[in-house]
Write a structure and sequence with these properties.
By secondary structure, this protein is α/β, with parallel strands linked by helices. The protein has helices spanning 3-16, 19-26, 30-44, 60-83, 100-107, 111-117, 169-175, 223-231, 245-249, 279-293, and strands at 49-52, 55-58, 92-98, 121-127, 141-145, 153-161, 163-167, 189-194, 197-198, 201-205, 208-212, 216-220, 236-240, 254-256, 265-272. It folds into three domains: 3-83, Winged helix-like DNA-binding domain superfamily/Winged helix DNA-binding domain (Arc Repressor Mutant, subunit A); 92-161 and 265-293, Periplasmic binding protein-like II (D-Maltodextrin-Binding Protein, domain 2); 163-260, D-Maltodextrin-Binding Protein, domain 2 (3-Layer(aba) Sandwich). The protein is built from ten helices and 15 strands. Strands 7, 8, 9, 12, 13 and 14 form a six-stranded mixed beta sheet that branches. Strands 4-3-5-15-6 form a five-stranded mixed beta sheet. Helix 1 (3-16) crosses helix 2 (19-26), helix 1 (3-16) packs across helix 4 (60-83) and helix 2 (19-26) crosses helix 3 (30-44). It is elongated and about 75 Å long.
């Protein structure tokens, strides 16, 4: 590893508090990572990391070196971007976290045009419904739905998503159509599970917001299985409507209770704060913004309560 690579490795170890996670992000083995940092300490003649049975922390010398290393790598990135503007294209690996549905339906189909523009950029996709820890999992950028609670993250709003109730025509023909939110408690319902708990159904009404937790006949923590359950006529779901955009357009699924749709949620591309965003990450965030802007069910101004 060259000296800049070692600096980057040291920063990852300090950020994650783990040699194994830093090694995984760098594409090397844990013993190699440990040897590289030990060699760095030997060259500097100072202990940078304090290792204990509970983990590790920076020494005072390590904190000083960490701050200098972050500034140095930021300056190198800025210099390369400035001097190589129009000459050197972004390159390298970008680690991205997103949900399975958005990835499969919207991002993956558009990747050929991204790689046509930036053939030297590669992507490692962490596909999961969970909220990953960007620092601990070595993620460069993640898509987050909803209002952000982590003030340590940098964010760019790229779209909005809308919750709504949907069902198949066959289900509604057999069991009828709910007219007000309270009616769903008399229907077969399909619930989305998040972190082990059923997500409540929120509606907007003339008298204010209403939250309902109907008894679910089917519950799942996977958006694709929720969609499959609706298409199979198993009941009504209250979920993100972008998942059903094509099904609604082609009549396989019908919007239910369209007059009670709750306010839309923002979608943000987020990345770790405290340092400049690299060129390779910036172009991918720009690409995500383009993808969302081109989709009526995802773009910031593209929502309808019809």
């Amino acid at each position: 590893m060259d000296r800049l690579d070692v600096l980057q490795l040291f920063i990852r170890v300090a950020d994650t508090g783990s040699f194994s996670k830093a090694a995984s992000a760098a594409g090397i083995s844990q013993p190699t990572a440990s040897k590289q940092v030990a060699a760095l300490e030997a060259r500097l003649g100072a202990q940078l990391l304090r290792r204990t049975s509970r983990g590790m922390s920076l020494t005072s010398a390590g904190q000083d070196y960490y701050e200098s290393a972050v500034r140095l790598l930021d300056d190198v990135e800025v210099a390369e971007s400035r001097i190589g503007h129009g000459q050197i294209a972004p390159s390298g690996l970008v680690r991205v976290a997103m949900s399975p549905g958005i990835g499969r339906l919207y991002v993956i189909p558009r990747l050929p045009e991204f790689f046509a523009r930036y053939p030297d950029v590669s992507l490692a996709l962490d596909i999961s419904e969970r909220h990953v820890s960007l620092i601990e999992d070595g993620i460069d950028v993640a898509l987050r739905i909803g209002h952000l609670s982590d003030s340590s993250l940098m964010a760019r709003r790229i779209g909005r998503v809308e919750y709504g109730s949907v069902a198949s025509p066959a289900y509604l023909e057999t069991f009828g159509t709910p007219m007000v939110p309270g009616d769903v408690e008399q229907h077969k319902c399909i619930a989305y599970m998040f972190r082990g708990a059923q997500r409540a159904w929120e509606f907007s009404t003339p008298s204010g917001p209403v939250t309902i937790a109907p008894k679910a006949q089917v519950s799942t923590n996977d958006a694709e299985h929720l969609r499959a359950s609706v298409l199979a006529g198993l009941g009504i779901a209250h979920t993100l409507t972008w998942l059903f955009a094509a099904d609604i357009a082609e009549g396989r699924v019908v919007k239910v209770l369209p007059g009670f749709v709750p306010p839309a949620f923002p979608v943000n591309a987020v990345w770790p704060g405290g340092r400049r965003v690299s060129g390779k990450v910036k172009v991918f965030i720009d690409f995500l913004a383009e993808v969302f802007a081109s989709e009526p069910t995802l773009r910031i101004d593209g929502f309808s309560r019809d």
